[in-house]
DNA sequence: ATTTTGGATGTTACCGATAACATTATTTTG
DNA sequence: CAAAATAATGTTATCGGTAACATCCAAAAT
């Protein structure tokens, strides 16, 4: 591998000049810069990351920590990682996947943490290095997330516009911030339209929502739409309605939230709130690098506006 | 952070002795070793990875490349990564997630590649660094994988023992090695029992297997079991049978292959071939590090014996 | 007793980059 | 036009380790 020195010799300048061309180009004359660029291209120079890390007393490693049990996880996190990795790669940082278990092994320059529950915040607050959290929180940590409230508001609104008369919210039985926000979007829409909210909560498993809908089937007249806080819950509702002989989307609607993977096993596809996960991952990476490189304490949070992914579980137009 | 030097001073020896205690302990007397260990503990010494990397002309980075389109991917890879990362962490290596797109950015010491199709092998063959592939192949590359053939053999055998008379294989329409192996396991069992094999192939989407079963429902008498090459295909078959009024597992059986995630949205849970994915990831990592550290060209391949995960889509005992 | 040998430890140079300082060339200023 | 300020480039020391070589000293061989 070509080194700074090789470039310097070829361009007939000192190492320092080459280093400056890279890090402080404004301090080098254009003539020399051209020479150096030329030489770099000629021998395909790539800086040695380890040497850089050594002088800067950094590691160029970012730890990505998923606190949630990964077995129960959707490919969500994979896409998120792709996004983070993409942002980091561009700056020659590398991403290290850790769990609670091996969190402390080895050093790093910063963290992206996700899957946090309320109990985790105390622990995370003790981290000394720059940090970005994926997933909204109300503890003052910088985060990146989808605008959860806007998502359920939008999709509830869509259901209403398409003529469903009764909107039932099937939420996740967890006291986490994102769940509150999703419920809040639903509640706001119902309030604005002076409708009566109905919220039911279950653990995030399709068979629980399925059982609920089946068990209460006689109470659900046509023109009911189930606004679900996750695609899993939506999938359960969809299956329940079909097994009870309800017609989707003609008489019954179902909406989900996530829009990543489950849709590939649902039929008809669920109309859902789709999140730009790769982009959010990139945002996590960019924000974190920004904090690291500019020694900023807090960079603020970022909400991505969600989009609705049209499936076949909401009718095309009002009857 | 404490350095070698700090330890040396505290133990009243030279840097070199400390370094030797770490890398060539047999060359240091026990007395000194004790002193050094004591000092290391006292100031909580952790070697600086960047400095190590610099002298060894290494990066301590392993690239993990998923060639398959990740959007269509199950959480499979997430678990695999956890395993790889676990193995690498123990040796202070870090894992970098790359795609084809950013594959060439930055240096590394070795690769774990997965999701390879036949066309990819030429390209992969050109890689200069140590390599381990996740997923069986017939091109001579070292790999780690589940014993696919044994998996379908075992589960087909189970279906037979539980009294299903007709075993239909629903495979993936791909000419990849793992698919051939899964079919081979099925074929072998049928041959040994002098039964007539029936193989149908579809792209790996649940609605395709679903449609197939629905469309041909009148041809499937009770006591038929569908041996599927993936959980997705199994899920489709399961839904089809239910929608046609078939009874699972009493009259119809369904088996899958993978056993990671889909089971969380299937009801009843699919009886499937379960793979030890985290362990396989660790094996990938360990083998790769072994190749790197011992400068071995080929370390041979490794097959993990699969296990059957009992769900509710195969009956408990023969009728 | 003296030389030889070999094991244990220390010294030095180096990996590839950068910051801080030193030097040189150029421009500005009194 | 000389002195001072400024800009452009080079030199040196350093980050935290390790390999290669140098030194030292006790045991073995002569």
Radius of gyration of chain A: 25 Å
Largest sheet of chain A: 6 strands, parallel
Strand content of chain A: 15-25%
Low-pLDDT segments of chain A: none
Gross morphology of chain A: elongated
Structure overview:
The structure is a homodimer of 319-residue chains. Chain A has 319 residues and is of the alpha/beta class. The first copy, chain A, folds into three domains: 4-47, no CATH class; 66-146 and 277-304, Rossmann fold (3-Layer(aba) Sandwich); 148-275, Rossmann fold (3-Layer(aba) Sandwich), CATH 3.40.50. Helices cover 40% and strands 18% of the residues of chain A. Chain A is built from eleven helices and twelve strands. The first copy, chain A, has helices spanning 4-11, 15-23, 30-42, 49-56, 76-89, 120-125, 148-161, 177-192, 206-215, 231-243, 277-294; strands spanning 61-66, 94-98, 110-114, 131-134, 143-146, 166-172, 198-202, 224-228, 252-258, 271-274, 302-304, 307-309. Chain A has a six-stranded parallel β-sheet, covered by helices on one side. A six-stranded mixed β-sheet of chain A has the order 7-6-8-9-10-12, sandwiched between helices. In chain A, β6 (166-172), α8 and β7 form a beta-alpha-beta unit. The longest helix of chain A is centred in the last third of the chain and has 18 residues, at 277-294. Chain A is elongated. The model of chain A has no long low-confidence stretch (mean pLDDT 91). At the A-B interface, α4, α5, β2, α9 and α10 of A face α4, α5, β2, α9 and α10 of B. Chain A binds a DNA duplex (30 and 30 nucleotides) through α2 and α4.
